[in-house]
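anyone seen this seq b4? input:
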Amino acid sequence: MPGFEIFGDEEKKEVMDVLETGVLFRYGFDQARQGHWKAASFEKQLCETTGAGFSHLCSSGTAALSLALAACGIGAGDEVIIPPFTFVATFEAVINAGAVPVFGEIDETLCLNPDKLDAVVTERTKAVVPVHMCGSMARIDKLKAFCDAKGLTLIEDACQALGGSFKGKYLGTFGAMGCFSFDSVKTITCGEGGGIITDNKALYERADQYADHGHDHLGGSDRGADGHPIMGSNFRISELNAAVGVAQLKKLDKILEIQRRNKQAIKDAMTGLPGVTFRDIPDPDGDSATFLSFFMEDETKARNTAKALGEAGVDGCAYYYDNNWHYLKHWHHLKTLSGAAKLPLELLENRPDYASVLVPDSDAIIKRNISMQIKLGWSDQEIDQRISKIKETIKG
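predicted toks r here
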């Protein structure tokens, strides 16, 4: 990852198809677009790739989460269980829906721990949003079983895990809806973009409508003839962004093959290094291999190792416990509920005090974790050099 590492003539061709027509808008202008429907083509490909019945492309992974929450009827005052290790978009989408983020613990999958969910379920809990972090899967079978038993909606945030699977079934297809991101640093990129998948036609139709001001898209080329069954917003993607994604999605199998090969070479070389253990991956065959995540014995060793790897030229080694964007510890804007306007959450009498949220299991895990990005463009020589530097650094 990311997909921009292998941009080529394929992306240029798809983009030029759009520019030559002058139609950048995804709807209408039927004659002028000369048969080019890039967003619709991408959606068809995404269904074929994941096995989902329906998909809808939108402007970002954040938008995808917002569409999924809206389509599933999650809103004012509803509690949504999410992990403390994720990108800020997960809780932002929940809050912007008027709902309340509640933090469950993670386990050594780096994803929500299904065995600890009972501790945070209340009568107001409506949904669980597991995040398949750093390219690999949560214990999604157990999370689904938990939600089914409790009558909760399962929405998968697979924004970092396109191409990942669990026992042959694509991540994003276990819940009511699955969400993906296609931003500039994802496995495949549209520059900016996201998408949802679902097997539920009604949920798909609501997402499709909500993404475009409530349009039902039944008016043909005349948008003025569309009905408006619901209120919505604007989460549309442009044909230019979708065009890049059409070419990128065709390269997914190649991307996964390269990532898995590069990751396995480094992981094999690191196996047996002093103090190193690896992330728990429930189904190694389904790992999309965008990151190699490993643990050191304690916080001090992990912090020092991440720093030393960077100084040795082993780039892309994230120590997430100190990261401002991916771990609860530094989400100060959430802890103070700092918004440009009054947030719906601020109107609740019994809102959580996010400044005092405790997730001791998650802290203990993330303090010891280092996640190394796996790149597509490494040559065999560069991988060998990287392995040598890693061994030298960790052996000390």
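The chain has a mean pLDDT of 97. The radius of gyration is 21 Å. kinda curious what u guys think
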